[in-house]
């Protein structure tokens, strides 16, 4: 049977391997040529109590024969490894959705743990869904009985049984997952054999039992010709930083302190020492950014990665970066806040923090990737601005972009911008704050260069000479100059997507809301609505044509996963009374909620 | 090596020195300016990084590269610089408030990693720049602006702290003793890895006379326990013997010279140097000066760069095209 798109959610205990199962299904789906988007969703606890609703980890994948913008609003298929997984996810399913459950886990004890008085598989409460109650645990254990594994060890392979079954249902190829397992368990032949056998048994179960009468084809998506791979935001960010280092000839120095959901960038970069990459796991967030700034001072591409709480700790050092006018890249993978907040959930509420969260007039550049693979390009853009203008640059990613993945057309290396930079050379009467007239950047004057020995610091400096100055007029001048430098940074103009040219409403987003907004607008346009869309990747400075665009449209709607932070900036800078659409549930917007809100504005 | 021999003048910047008259920082600066030419390192390859406090103005007065950073964080900036630029000689200038209070975390981690940094801790046992509050090395009961009834805090012993943090080179000297301080600087700069030098430094405005016992000609001979590798540890009146598994201060008149400890700065057992560090208390009647510990340990900065070069030697330099095309890929026609 042929389908044009499917959304599947795998859900189980934190230790059930749902993220791995989802990842593998994603890779197999990507290699088949479907377009896709993913949404991993997991608790902050590493092994939350088993069988509880709050301990459920899930992975959602939306794949289609056409362009996909979001991980899908409501799943068509739920794989629930226990009653808690069913309970946690049932209310988000479409009516008529397919539910595959591990019936072995539906014991009285497990049911009562999550408050099911009766077994939903038997009490008729799931009548409007297509239920497949499969003994995932018992079938896996039976299949592995020939291997010398304990029951507990054998049970652990049940996620591979489930993956095998889904792989059969949706006609995914099996080689890639088989190769993956072989590489992962190369040194553990027993575990490898168990996983391969469970995977194969799951596939055969679909093929042979009558429980699953139908399987499905989803055709290839029409995507621009090229070579593709699947990539998550954090990996794309790491690759973008390496690319920036290669294109600039600057050594990549990452100073970082582990924090969710940013740590994977540290992990990824740590693997790539052969690019000369230095990763330094510091004693705290302050040391992480301090070491990056020190490396920048020495002529490296200094980078620090963190999340909102880490930015709070780094603020004073970033202020020093503003004063020293050195390149520095600060990647904030945003999560729910304030304080520790929701470490594993997504949010966009650090915009005003990175704009204004430092003492004094302390302008910094702010960029935001629009989707997972855009992290690659935004990292290169951050390096371009940081090294050209010698200024701290923030990148605001978020948990959704960081962990979500999508197909990415691998760029040609030669198409990447040339980021070559010039350091100050040996000269007479060197002045560390004599600026380039065009960019207002001061020289990048690195130690080791004869004849330009000089002292810099956090105290206010005299124009040109860089000597300490408490002169009132000089301070006023320097404050305005630092602001003018950032305001004058050249960034690409904003492009408007307004096919009819008659739209009265512009939807303006930033960061990870791109997918849901684009998806909602696609739906609305299909039903004849006229809506324009544009998306900001540069938040400070804004693109030069933003003001003109805002004035052109009578109505401008700004969806954000915060309480209206971009809206506040737009109102103050452009006196435009934009319409805010806000939610902070720790999850991305759904297509439906944005589409409904747009309709309400259009016809309200 | 520099083309021509440099002199003190070559290391003196044009900046007017602005410490209070009589400040101990003057003599430390002068000693450093006289000492630096001896290293034979070109000026452009020397970097002084400081935090905040009176002592942290130090880099402005040296004709080298310098950064006056933010409070307590100099070791972090210096760490990034030293790791990514192993060709540079990086000094950290800090004070007792800067390195032991707000920046305590960074100090201990720089030392345990053994980053290639020479850290000069100017200890005046007071906050000078903020005009006279007690510091983490102020003696208990000290009356200051913020402790009118006497400070309740137990002070840090910076040497003990550094040794506890696994420092591979730890020494103490006194601001006004140019000869001694120069010897310590010489050994510190020859050492591979981190070196911490505590320098007793007089603040004539807010804590004048704090170190009189080790500076006054009438008392210092008795107070300063000279630690010289291979020689007995002693002052003019006192010596150190081993007793009950630890070290004990004894009067020379009652002691057989042969029982005195012969100093071994390279002793791999840190408890020896730690025991030496405990011989002095807040009152400074008897203070060991010189090098407590100088042991060989792999420098972090060197190891970081070795890891990279080893991997490149084994696998070849990174290829960006290969990296981007790694993993599962597919082609859309």
Task: Walk me through what this model shows.
- The complex is a heterodimer of chains A (604) and B (333).
- Chain A has 604 residues and is α/β, with parallel strands linked by helices.
- The two termini of chain A are 41 Å apart.
- In chain A, helix 6 (158-169) runs parallel beside helix 8 (189-208).
- In chain A, the strands form 5 sheets. Chain A has a 7-stranded mixed β-sheet with strand order 11-10-12-13-15-14-20, sandwiched between helices. A 6-stranded mixed β-sheet of chain A has the order 3-4-2-5-6-7, sandwiched between helices.
- Helix content of chain A is 37%, strand content 19%.
- Chain A has 3 domains: 2-218, Pyruvate-ferredoxin oxidoreductase, PFOR, domain III (Pyruvate-ferredoxin Oxidoreductase, domain 3), CATH 3.40.920; 229-415, Thiamin diphosphate (ThDP)-binding fold, Pyr/PP domains (Rossmann fold); 505-603, Rossmann fold.
- Chain B is an alpha/beta fold and 333 residues long.
- Chain B has a domain at 8-210 and 298-308: 3-Layer(aba) Sandwich (Rossmann fold), CATH 3.40.50.970.
- Chain B has helices at 24-39, 74-84, 96-102, 104-113, 158-164, 178-190, 212-215, 220-223, 270-277, 300-315, 320-324; strands at residues 46-50, 65-68, 89-95, 118-123, 169-174, 195-200, 224-227, 238-243, 246-251, 287-294, 329-332.
- In chain B, a hairpin with a 2-residue loop joins strand 8 (238-243) and strand 9.
- In chain B, helix 2 runs parallel beside helix 10.
- In chain B, 48% of the residues are buried.
- Chains A and B meet through helix 1, strand 9, helix 9, helix 11 and helix 12 of A and strand 1, strand 2, helix 2, helix 4 and helix 10 of B.
């Amino acid at each position: 049977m042929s389908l044009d798109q499917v959304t599947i959610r795998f859900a189980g205990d934190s230790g059930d391997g749902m993220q791995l199962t989802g990842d593998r299904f994603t890779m197999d789906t990507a290699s088949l040529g479907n377009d896709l988007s993913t949404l991993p969703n997991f608790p902050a606890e590493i092994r939350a109590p088993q069988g509880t609703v709050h301990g459920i980890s899930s992975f959602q994948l939306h794949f289609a024969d056409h362009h996909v913008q979001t991980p899908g609003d409501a799943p068509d298929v739920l794989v629930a490894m226990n009653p808690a997984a069913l309970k946690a996810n049932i209310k988000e399913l479409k009516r008529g959705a397919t539910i595959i459950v591990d019936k072995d886990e539906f014991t009285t004890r497990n049911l009562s743990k999550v408050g099911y008085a009766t077994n939903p598989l038997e009490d008729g409460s799931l009548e409007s869904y297509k239920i497949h109650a499969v003994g995932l645990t018992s079938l896996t254990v039976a299949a592995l009985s020939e291997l010398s594994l304990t029951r507990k060890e054998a049970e652990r392979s049940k996620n591979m049984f489930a993956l095998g079954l889904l792989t059969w249902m949706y006609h995914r190829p099996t080689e890639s997952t088989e190769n993956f397992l072989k590489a992962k368990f190369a040194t553990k032949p027993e575990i490898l054999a168990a996983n391969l056998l469970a995977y194969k048994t799951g596939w055969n179960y679909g093929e042979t039992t009558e429980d699953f009468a139908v399987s499905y084809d989803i055709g290839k998506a029409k995507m621009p010709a090229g070579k593709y791979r699947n990539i998550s935001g954090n990996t794309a960010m790491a690759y973008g930083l390496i690319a920036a280092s290669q294109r600039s000839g600057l050594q990549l120095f990452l100073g970082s302190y582990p924090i969710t959901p940013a740590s994977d960038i540290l992990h990824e970069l740590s693997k790539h020492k052969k690019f000369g990459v230095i990763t330094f796991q510091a004693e705290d967030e302050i040391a992480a950014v301090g070491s990056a700034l020190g490396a920048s001072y020495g002529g490296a591409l200094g980078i620090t990665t963190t999340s909102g709480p880490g930015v709070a700790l780094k603020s004073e050092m970033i202020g020093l970066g503003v004063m020293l006018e050195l390149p520095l890249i600060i990647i904030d993978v945003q999560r729910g806040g304030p304080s520790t907040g929701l470490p594993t959930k997504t949010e966009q509420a650090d915009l005003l923090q990175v704009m204004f969260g430092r003492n004094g007039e302390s302008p910094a550049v702010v960029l935001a990737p629009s989707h997972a693979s855009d992290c690659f390009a935004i990292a290169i853009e951050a390096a371009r601005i940081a090294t050209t203008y010698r200024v701290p640059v923030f990148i605001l990613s978020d948990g959704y972009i960081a962990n979500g993945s999508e197909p990415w057309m691998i760029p040609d290396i030669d198409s990447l911008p040339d980021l070559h930079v010039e350091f100050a050379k040996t000269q007479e009467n060197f002045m560390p704050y004599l600026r380039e007239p065009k960019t207002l950047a001061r020289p990048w004057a690195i130690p080791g260069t004869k004849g330009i020995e000089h002292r810099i610091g956090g105290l206010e400096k005299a124009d040109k000479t860089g000597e300490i100055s408490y002169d009132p007029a000089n301070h006023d001048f320097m404050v305005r100059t630092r602001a003018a430098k950032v305001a004058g940074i050249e960034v690409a103009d904003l492009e408007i997507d307004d096919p009819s040219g008659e739209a009265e409403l512009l939807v303006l987003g930033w960061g990870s809301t791109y997918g849901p907004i684009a998806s909602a607008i696609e739906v609305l346009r299909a039903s004849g609505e006229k809506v324009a869309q544009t998306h900001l990747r540069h938040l400070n400075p804004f693109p030069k044509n933003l003001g003109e665009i805002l004035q052109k449209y009578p109505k401008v709607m700004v969806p954000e996963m915060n309480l209206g932070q971009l809206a506040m900036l737009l109102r103050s800078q452009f006196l435009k009374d934009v319409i805010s659409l806000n939610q902070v549930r720790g999850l991305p917007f759904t297509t439906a909620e944005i589409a409904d809100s747009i309709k309400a504005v259009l016809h309200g | 090596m520099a083309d021509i021999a440099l002199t003190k003048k070559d290391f003196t910047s044009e900046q007017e020195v602005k410490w209070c008259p009589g400040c101990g920082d003057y003599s430390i600066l002068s000693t450093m300016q006289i000492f630096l030419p001896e290293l034979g390192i070109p000026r452009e390859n020397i970097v002084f990084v400081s935090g905040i406090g009176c002592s942290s103005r130090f880099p402005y007065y040296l004709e080298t590269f310098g950064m006056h950073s933010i409070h307590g964080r100099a070791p972090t900036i210096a760490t990034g610089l030293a790791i990514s630029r192993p060709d540079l000689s990086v000094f950290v200038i800090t004070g007792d408030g800067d390195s032991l209070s707000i920046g305590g975390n960074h100090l201990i981690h720089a030392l345990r990693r053994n980053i290639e940094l020479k850290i000069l801790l100017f200890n005046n046992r007071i906050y000078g720049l903020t005009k006279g509050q007690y510091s983490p090395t102020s003696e208990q009961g000290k009356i200051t602006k913020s402790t009118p009834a006497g400070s309740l805090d137990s002070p840090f012993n910076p040497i003990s702290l550094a040794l506890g943090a696994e420092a591979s080179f730890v020494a103490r000297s006194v601001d006004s003793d140019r000869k001694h301080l120069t010897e310590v600087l010489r050994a510190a700069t020859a050492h591979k890895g981190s070196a911490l030098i505590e320098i007793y430094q007089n603040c004539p405005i807010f804590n004048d006379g704090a170190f009189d016992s080790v500076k006054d000609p009438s008392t210092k001979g008795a107070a300063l326990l000279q630690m010289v590798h291979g020689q007995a540890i002693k002052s003019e009146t006192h010596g150190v013997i081993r007793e009950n598994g630890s070290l004990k201060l004894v009067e020379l008149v009652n002691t057989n010279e042969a029982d005195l400890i012969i100093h071994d700065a390279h002793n791999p057992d840190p408890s020896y140097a730690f025991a030496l560090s405990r011989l002095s208390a807040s009152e400074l009647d008897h203070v060991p000066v010189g090098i407590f510990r100088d042991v060989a340990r792999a420098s972090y900065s060197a190891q970081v760069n070795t890891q990279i070069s080893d991997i490149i030697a084994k696998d070849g330099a990174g290829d960006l095209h290969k990296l981007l095309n790694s993993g599962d890929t597919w082609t859309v026609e």
